[in-house]
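>> Question from a student workshop board

For tomorrow's exercise we were told to take the sequence and the ligand below, predict the bound structure, and bring the output to class. My setup keeps failing. Could a helper post the expected result so I can at least see what it should look like? The ligand is heme C.
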Amino acid sequence: MPKLTLSARLVAIGLLLGARLASANEVADTRIVVDTSTLPAITGAAGDANPYRGNSRAADIGRQAFNQACARCHGPDGDNKGQVGPDLLKLDRGCSRIADPAIREMCIVDNDQYFLKSVQDGKTRVGVVHMPAWKDVLPPAAIWTIRSFLESRARPATPVQSR
Ligand code: HEC
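>> Workshop helper replied:
Here is what the output should look like for this input. Compare the format with yours to find the bug.
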C-alpha cells in the first residue's frame, strides 16, 4: 500500500528530525570577547579580502578565539578529529590548485567572503541549527583573526601570503 509506505516514511523522517533537534539546536557562547585593539582598524568595505592575511599577531589572537568559540565543533586548533563540523583547514584546498596567481587570489577572496558569511549567519538546515550565528558575538575583525589563524595552519599552506 503506497499510502502506508509514505506515512511510515514520514514517521521515520519525523523521528530523525526530532532526534537531531534534541542534540543540534546550538547557540553561540555570548561570553566570548576577542580583543583586536592591537591590530590595525579595518578600513575596507564589506566584500574585501581578509585584511589580516599573513598577520601573525592576528593569527595568534584568532587561535585563542577559535579555541574558545569553534574548537568544540571543528576540533582544537582546527584539527578535526571526528567533531561534528567540517575540517576548516581544507577550505582553501581547491584554490591552492589554481596555477594562475590572479585567479587563485580571486578564489581565496571568494572563500574569505564565504567564511565571513558562514560565521556571521551560522548554518541552519530545515530549521535545525547546525552552527549558531556569531554576528552578535564576534565583530568582523574577530572573525578575520580566526580566518588568519586557520590560514596559517592550512595544509598545504595555501594562501600566497604577503608578510
Ligand atoms: C555547535 C557546533 C559549531 C560551532 C560552535 C561552530 N561551528 Fe562552524 N560549522 C558547524 C557545522 C555542523 C557546519 C556544517 C554545517 C552545514 O554545512 O550545514 C559548520 C560549518 C562552518 C563553516 C563552513 C565550512 C564549509 O566547508 O562549508 C565555516 C567557515 C565555519 N563553520 C566556521 C566556524 C567558526 C569560525 C566557528 C567559531 C566562531 C564555528 N564555525 C563554530 C558547527 C559548528
